[in-house]
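Q: Hi! First time doing this. I have a protein sequence and I read that you can turn it into a structure. Is that right? Here it is:
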Amino acid sequence: MRVVIAGGGSVGKFIAEQLHEGGHEVLIVDNDHATVARALKNNEPKGVAWFEADACEIAALADANLDKADVVAAVTGDDEDNLVISLLAKQEFGVPRVVARVNNPKNEWMFNETWGVDVSVSTPHLITGLVQEAVTEGSFVRLLNFEGGKAQLAEVTLADTSPANGQEIGELGFPRDANIVAVVRGDRVIMPRPDTILRVHDEVIVLVTAEAGDDVRRLLIG
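A: Yes, that's right. Below is the predicted 3D structure, encoded as structure tokens:
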């Protein structure tokens, strides 16, 4: 798979290194001459190609053969740049999958399909969700948004008042547009089956659409 990463900072380089080790062809696009020169001199990340250009310009993206990319990740430190890159990648070059980094959580509402974003990752919101997940029971905690908020990965730690306690997953009557993807019980990760019985303090991780969110809350929280 060919992946183009816009932004050669610490985040972009780490992602590139991980993807390259996974066997993918990776190109980093960055407009800072010193960053690119230093990376090429030190061959870091090892095996990853670099292209010095402004990823907000159509001509630069064309020179980077963005039309041949399977995925584009816009991970610069500027939200405006990430939105422009995402929009160009989707509308001008038809990239199948566009992932964008959200730096300021107040801007997250813009990172949707209108701007060409398939998946947005807001680090502040993700950290907040993980903290809530660690200290809160009986709350619906969002971990990650997909398709501009049309679907989300969320977590509920079952309180003793949850109607799901002692119930088999197959008997809960989950809506068609939601699915339990994992159950964390203590130090164990359980792959859910219809006959898996949920218990108090289980961390239930669900993939759910916006339309099914209220039904899932009712089933797991009450």
